[in-house]
């Protein structure tokens, strides 16, 4: 017999069975090195989205890097690569989730101090009353009140990005204390209204709540 290949052998014009495809490893082998920038951005965003969901559903204590990775459809090593520890993932996730509330200092900066209490209260409850921004805020607050590590991250973000910026605008010797007291009034009310849901506060009209709180916030910030 001539020209035939033995039974089980490779085709005469193809690569050996089980061997690499023509062209070496370039066609099917996994790319080495860093992924393209767009791919990196997509992966990072996917991890952040998964992290927000995990922290929201399970809280800080019961959320794990492995769980975040599974939800994002990536290897846990990629979570560490982009963010580091679970605490750092949490900080990145809540900074993004808390983004709208971090604009609170603008309510102080964009007008005279004699109306700052109402502007700040109206801005704050505007964020909480919006279902799209309320859900991530609830996840942040719930984690912060049940876990000290999460609380420390929350305090750091609030102190550096909100309270100090408000205090600078006040230009008073005890400005930081005033800003913290005003924030305590607003955050405490939000916890009772949206987290614990104490009645009748939980069902009160937002305008009624703002009208009651605004003078108190104003007093903390500007009264002698």
Return residue spans where pLDDT drops below 50 for at least 5 consecutive residues: 1-34
Instruction: Specify Rg, calculated over alpha carbons.
Output: 27 Å
Q: Please summarize the sheet with the most strands.
A: none
Question: What portion of residues belong to β-strands?
Answer: under 5%
Element order, helices and strands? HHHHHHHHHH
What overall form do the CA principal axes indicate?
elongated
Q: What is the CA-CA span between the terminal residues? A: 109 Å
Helix content: 55-70%
Total count of helical runs of at least 4 residues = 10
Number of strands: 0
Structural class: mainly alpha
Mean pLDDT: 79
Can you describe this structure?
The structure is a single chain. The protein has ten helices and no strands. It is mainly α.
